[in-house]
Amino acid sequence: MASVSAPSAALAPHRPSASAALLFPCPYSSPRVSPSPTAQPRRLAVAARAMPWPHVLTVAGSDSGAGAGIQADIKASAALGAYCSSVITAVTAQNTVGVQARGPCCTGGVRWGAAQVKTGMLPSAGIVKVLCENLRKFPVKALVVDPVMVSTSGDTLSGPSTLATFREELFPMADIVTPNVKEASKLLGDVSLQTISDMRSAAESIYKLGPKHVLVKGGDMPDSTDAIDVFFDGNEFIELRGLRIKTRNTHGTGCTLASCIAAELAKGATMLHAVEVAKKFVESALYHSKDLVIGNGPQGPFDHLFSLKSPLRKMGSLHKFNPDDLFLYAVTDSGMNKKWGRSIKDAVKAAIEGGATIVQLREKDTETREFLEAAKACVEICRSSGVPLLINDRIDVALACNADGVHVGQSDMPAWEVRELLGPGKIIGVSCKTPAQAEQAWKDGADYIGSGGVFPTTTKANNPTLGFEGLRAVCSASKLPVVAIGGINTGNAGSVMELGLPNLKGVAVVSALFDRECVATETRSLRSILMNACSRS
Ligand SMILES: Cc1ncc(COP(=O)(O)OP(=O)(O)O)c(N)n1
Ligand SMILES: Cc1nc(C(=O)O)sc1CCOP(=O)(O)O
Ligand SMILES: [Mg+2]
User: Where's the Pyridoxamine kinase/Phosphomethylpyrimidine kinase domain (predicted)?
Assistant: First the structure.
């Protein structure tokens, strides 16, 4: 990309002042239109349908290259369904090589309209002070502070003079502060941050400066196969793991993450959920942009609107995998359901009614077209109940019906290839009978493993039985959550859960649910047995 220069007038530094106000009339603060007493019925009807639009106000710098800053904030918020208005604190001239020029603007007199405010580049202590004054005058619903100091290309975006103002004035007002390790280190007087334990200490020290939550982002940590961030809410540290996507297109990840957090908060999410969705969004965007090329510099932007190009991977279906969903895993079998005269769809409905927490369609003998139709119907049922739906073996069917994921075994497509095809937003389970297979599943980017057969089974031909000791070996070695499978029924499920094995989250069952007359009743009984066993162990 050719070097882009910003207009020189915009680059001329000037002091922030209330008289140089960037006043805008703030039409966004009152989403409902109040009809006048004389309003006609038609106008009243319009008012009754008015829908509040989640609103993020970004207070940040403009990036002429449009990968980061205000431009990234607007794209990220829009991608998550929030409206993003902006206050430009600085103008930068950037491209994929680096930052060529910068100059401050001001934030004087801006009325926030009670939005969720996200801050980015605040180039001088003066601007931070003006911002803080305004935040005191016009309280906001939530304040997300991305303490931008150095661009990913290594260029300084806000000088050391801002550090004290960040710490003393801005952070105490923040709902969350999101430094990367370099910024966390600078904020804490250049402490060395090399390990996760260092990141935890940093999160705690920054928390003491006054924000309600801290997220220290570990994307820049060396020698890590995962991108691990540390979230701290004053009580608990939570390590949020994501896939490290190999790509040069990482420009703007910090701005995007913070804007996504603000957008999710605007939609009513809790802070932890907002952070989780934001992290997943960035991971997915990087994944789908990893091979895009724009410009010849070392660092490119990524595509915030990737889901427009890839309708099968819509943001709406990004499922944050919850290992507790493995508690009661219902795995269908077309032969069994046919035998009892029910459709796949009715079988799934009944399993959910009985309390299944995750469903897998394992249809070995169903024709592709019939399978896909059934899968689409099951996706609808599962989504409306909040139960994830996975497809056994068939990645093509999973993509076509936009399922939440896929389960594969050792002779199916390798999990890393499945990950390539599905992207990071989908759930992948892998069958593992040995610790080595469990290790490989983790390296391949799986989310969970299924391990069995715990007991002999007639549902899967020639399936070796592991017994409790085999299951114990896999669970102990696994870095992923495990669901036990094979010959499990209401008579023995309790004994499996009472083993109290590490990482064992639940049981997966075929015949004990679907080779029975009433699927809902059997699922209900199994669920109550599992709950009793868990409360005993
Ligand atoms: C939860 C769960 N665990 C294991 C399996 C078995 O998968 P696989 O080894 O690929 O065998 P098939 O099911 O394809 O016959 C599973 N399906 N689900
Ligand atoms: C599909 C499957 N996978 C197994 C494994 O050991 O990986 S055992 C199995 C069949 C499980 O059926 P049932 O609950 O009827 O025994
Ligand atoms: Mg298989």
Answer: 63-298
Whether 393 and 344 share a structural domain: yes
The CA 391 to ligand 3 mean position distance, Å, reads 10
Residues listed for the chain: 537
444 closest CA partner among 422, 474, 466: 422
Choosing from 460, 482, 505 the residue with most ligand 1 atoms within 8 A of its CB, the one to mutate for a pocket test is: 460
Q: What is the pLDDT of residues 13-71, one digit of tens each?
A: 333 333 223 322 233 333 333 344 444 444 444 455 677 899 999 999 999 999 999 99
Whether residue 41 is contained in a domain is answered as no
Q: Residue 315 domain-assigned?
A: no
Say which CATH number the domain at 261 has: 3.40.1190.20
Q: DSSP assignment of 504-529, as one string? A: EEEEEESHHHHSSS-HHHHHHHHHHH
ipTM summary value: 0.98
Phi and psi dihedrals of 116, rounded to 5?
-90, 125
Distance between CA 275 and CA 281 in Å, rounded? 10
User: Of these residues, 75, 118, 186, 217, which one is catalytic?
Assistant: 217
| The ligand 2 atom nearest the CA atom of 463 | 6
487 in the same domain as 437:
yes
Same domain? 454 vs 349: yes
* Residues 348-402 pLDDT 10s: 999 999 999 999 999 999 999 999 999 999 999 999 899 999 999 999 999 999 9
**Amino acid sitting at position 57:** L
Domain match, 184 and 209 both: yes
Domain's final residue, options 250, 285, 309: 309
Residues 7-44 as b/e (b if ≥16 CB within 10 A, e otherwise) read eeebbeeeebeeeeebeeebebeeeeeeeeeeeeeeee
